[in-house]
Amino acid sequence: MRGQAQNVIALKHQTATEEHIQLKSTKNLVSALTSALFMTIPTATALAKTDSVMFTATPPVIDGVANDAAWEAGDWHEMTSLMWGTTPEPSDFSGRYKLRWNESALYLLAEIQDDHLSDTYANPLERYWDDDCLEIFIDADASGGDHLNNYNAFAYHLALDNQVIDIGPNEAGEAVPLRYNDHVENKWQRAAAAPHKIYWEAAVRVFDDSYQHGKDNSPLTLKEDMALGFMLAYCDADGGDREHFLGSHDITPVNGDKNLGFKDASVFGKVTLAK
Questions:
Q1: What pTM was estimated for this model as a whole?
Q2: CA distance 52 to 274
Q3: Which of 62, 78, 163, 250 has the maximum number of C-beta atoms within 10 A of its C-beta?
């Protein structure tokens, strides 16, 4: 399912959805072209790090309030790796996060400082990357590879209205933005006092590549020592267009491009579930 997606390796994440659709074909054609294209196109890789994720017997309440016992340990991870745009001043954007897990889900707490929240596009399927959003990248078996028009991995865009969007195949096999609200429960709140930090909590149900959109699917049961592909990023838009895109993992550019996570899970880092 990967080869045709390589025809869009130069496309930026902000490219209009219609351009993605024009460059997609059926899954069978994508699969047939994969091997030949990978022989000639440079492979994207993350400058990967593997982190251990702590188990929690009592999952956090997903309410945007970071007062749960699960979050008490101070194992923050920074979001400082520039993937697109220019590096912002810390007052414009800074972010860090924590992860926890139990058998049901991977839990995320992100602490975001963003001086201007932008939700320009009311339609959650339209230019969602040009609004402020938190992006969670998940690869259930940490296998890497293309996922633009298949479910080898997911790149969940969590919008300010808590909608969860990714690109996936519709019934005709075309790559289109789709809602995955049942995959990620999420909520954020912004502090009233300066510097008005945002605390964004999420519970991510992990699905593997057998997922079929609109069908009856069951998430994986998470287990100790399981390895997941993972990356976190934030689209910072101060009105109209995204200006900065920073994340948790450094990426080796392909033809100068680091904005690759939305289509290539090879750039994700890895986390190991520990007890």
A1: 0.80
A2: 6
A3: 62
For residue 266, the SS3 value is helix
- The one-character DSSP state at 130 is G
CA distance 163 to 180: 8
Please state, rounded to an integer, the average pLDDT across all residues of the chain: 82
Q: Which residues touch 86 (CB under 8 Å, ≥6 apart)?
A: 243, 244
> Which domains are present in the chain?
45-274 (2.60.40.1190)
Instruction: Scan for tokens 């109209």, then name that residue.
Output: 240
Nearest to 108 by CA among 232, 17, 20, 197: 232
pLDDT confidence of 26, banded at 50, 70, 90?
Answer: very low
Pull the structure tokens for residue 251: 């990426």
Amino acid in position 186: N
128 contacts: CB under 8 Å, gap ≥ 6: 121, 157, 159, 163, 165, 177
pLDDT at 257 over 80: yes
Tell me if residue 34 falls in helix, strand or coil: helix
In 3D space, the residue among 237, 231, 241 whose CA is nearest the CA of residue 114 turns out to be 237
Give the tokens for residue 241: 């267009």
With tokens 């139990």, the residue in question is 102
